[in-house]
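During the no-cost extension, the postdoctoral fellow (Dr. R.K.) reprocessed legacy sequence entries with the updated structure-token encoder. One reprocessed record is reproduced below for audit purposes.
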Amino acid sequence: MIQNNTGFMGNIPVVTKNILIINVLMFIASSLFSKGPLNNPMDDYLALHYFTSDYFRPHQIITCMFMHGSIEHIFFNMFAVFMFGRILESIWGPKKFLLYYMIAGVGASLLQLLVMYLRVSHLEANIPAEQLPEMLYQLKTEGLDLIRSQRNYIDETMGALNLLINIPMVGASGAIFGILVAFGIIFPNAELMLIFPPIPIKAKWFVIGYGVLELVLGVADRAGDNVAHFAHLGGLFAGLILILYWRKKGFTTNEHIF
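Re-encoded structure tokens follow.
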């Protein structure tokens, strides 16, 4: 890991600092290699693809949390890491914070894959058995090219399957939801100032409200908003379970774990 004890970056704890640096470097490299919408060799290898895709690799469960789709995406995610991650790391220490961050991110990936599998299975169940193999072959051979040309199938079921199977997931949002739930548990009454609406709100209510919102949007299956809501919930639940486990075992500082 990179460590520098001088200047602005020197005031940021080592794990938080390196998370910021790695994500920014990956975003710059990804932008340089991009050939257009969903046509990026780095995304093909590092973003999280559905497990029936030819592009799926197990390591993507981890690497996807270091990839981002736009400047706004990475800015807000890294701003949250900077604001809340450095506070948690200063309390827990670098090893415990890194373990927590990675488990929250992996939890986000796994829940997103599970929800995608359930949705794909539901859609496939509505397709006549004799037509399903041909439709899946079409999705595999031409579905991604349609999306890259900003088109999709007219048939509603085929279009929904194409989005689920051929659009990969990127972003650190799941791990960040884990950070938010940890902050809300440790500092439940800390007041956060929202941008919209511009009012202060206690951390515990912010986390609960945000979690409920993500659940509602995820259940509504708003595929068109291009947001992996259940990945956010996966990071939140993974972080919550880990914190409850640590509390049950009496792990309050990093030396109890390592």
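The first helix runs from residue 7 to 10. Strands lie at 191-193, 200-202. The remaining legacy entries will be reprocessed before the final report is submitted.
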